[in-house]
């Protein structure tokens, strides 16, 4: 009990876990009546002074301590995992809404319009993390491929419909006239539907302004 009463572990240092372990080890050496050298004892002291959120980083180690050297194992893993956790927090702080909220919170007398403008500027100058950029790029490429595929399908359906109409008697009788009309209107302002279907274009499909010959919209 005298050994327990003589040891005073320093408060955990969140910003520098490695330094905290060095301070703990110095405390272990000053313990009376003799220095603490047992790995299990040092492990128990260290664990008892970890804040709950820090202990959660090494929960698996606390639940199943290393049988050979639990203290050294805890020390190594906690330092490594704390560094990874800090990097994640920094990346989160420097990206998206977290950064915007942090900066705007420090600015006083900020109107709603100025806040919106400032937040847009912050997002514009904030670099996108590489992993997020890669995901966005992949999503963009995937969406573009889907759109191109749908456009190709739509064009195929339109061509098929136009081919079937071209085989009808009415279509054959009007083909020469439609061809002349199309050639005359290529150089004028003609909507896409009339360029595609000629006089077979339905009136409600026409997009103004359209100068297709015989088109009421173009004559107005």
TrEMBL record:
InterPro entries with a match to the protein in the record: DUF7041
Stretches the record annotates as Disordered: 167-186
Alphabetized Pfam families for the sequence: DUF7041
Domain DUF7041: 9-94
TM annotation in the entry: none
Compositionally biased spans, kind Basic residues: 168-177
Superkingdom of this protein's organism: Eukaryota
The protein, known as: DUF7041 domain-containing protein
Organism the protein comes from: Araneus ventricosus (Orbweaver spider)
């Amino acid at each position: 009990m005298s050994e327990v009463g003589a040891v005073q572990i320093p408060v955990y240092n969140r910003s520098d876990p490695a330094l905290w372990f060095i301070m703990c080890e110095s405390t272990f050496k000053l313990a009376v009546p003799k220095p603490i050298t047992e790995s299990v004892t040092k492990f128990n002291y260290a664990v008892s002074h970890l804040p709950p959120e820090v202990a959660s980083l090494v929960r698996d180690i606390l639940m199943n301590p290393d049988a050979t050297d639990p203290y050294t194992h805890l020390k190594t893993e906690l330092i490594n995992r704390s560094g990874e956790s800090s990097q994640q927090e920094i990346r989160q702080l420097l990206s998206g809404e977290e950064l915007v909220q942090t900066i705007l919170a420090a600015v006083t007398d900020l109107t709603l319009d100025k806040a919106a403008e400032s937040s847009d500027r912050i997002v514009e100058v904030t670099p996108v993390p590489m992993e997020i950029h890669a995901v966005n790029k992949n999503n963009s490429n995937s969406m573009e491929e889907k759109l191109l595929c749908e456009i190709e399908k739509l064009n195929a359906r339109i061509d098929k419909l136009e081919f079937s109409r071209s085989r009808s008697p009415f279509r054959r009788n009007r083909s020469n006239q439609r061809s002349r009309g199309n050639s005359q209107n290529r150089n004028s302002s003609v909507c896409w539907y009339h360029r595609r279907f000629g006089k077979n274009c339905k009136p409600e499909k026409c997009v103004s302004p359209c100068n297709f010959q015989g088109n009421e919209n173009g004559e107005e």
